[in-house]
Design a protein that fits this description.
By secondary structure, the protein is mainly alpha-helical. It has one domain. Helix content is 77%, strand content 0%. Helix 6 packs antiparallel against helix 9.
Amino acid sequence: MPSSTGFQTPIARCSALAAPLLRPLSPVLLVSGLLLIYPAGAQAHHLIEFLHQRPTPLGGLMSGLAHPVVGPDHLLFLLALSLVGWRQRSGWMLALLTVGLVGSGLGLLLPGLPAAEALVALTLVVVGLVLLGRLHPLVLLPAFALHGYVLSATVLGWSAAPIGYYLLGLLLSQGLLLLLALRGLRGFVASLPSGTVRILAAALLGCGAAWTWSALVG
């Protein structure tokens, strides 16, 4: 009968080979698992709603700062941009922030875009297709504008001051997250093997498709 060592050695070798691949995938796999368990979590909420407070300038600022973090679809989209934007110039981040604010302005002026939440979830599919070389990275600009549009939806009816401070908080929060995604993670993303990037793209496609379906049938 073969010794237990004879079985353990191949297993140990396989684990050692798989570890570098699975380690960078773990955040995406975790998000994917949570998504499949509770798809409704893709819908973001304001901090004011959590705290049951009335809109004020301070509340608007805090809500704007927190909103990109408490919205899983938006947070995942921002972090996924690191897989694309690490090759782009500094103006790429400024362009994203600009179109995001334009999108928020359009959301305030022309609310009620049909299936907006489903379209936002679909932007994860867009990122995945960009990573696979099926779409040009420029399509991420209108995708980011769409996120800005949806992020403005729940401030409708607020007075001007809380809305202004909310947009300021949103700009600061998204700017910091983009700085982390496009600059802080640059070295890490650049070191990823092409096979790992393709697997991450597939995970984004799966998350985006599941969230889109949840938004359409929910």
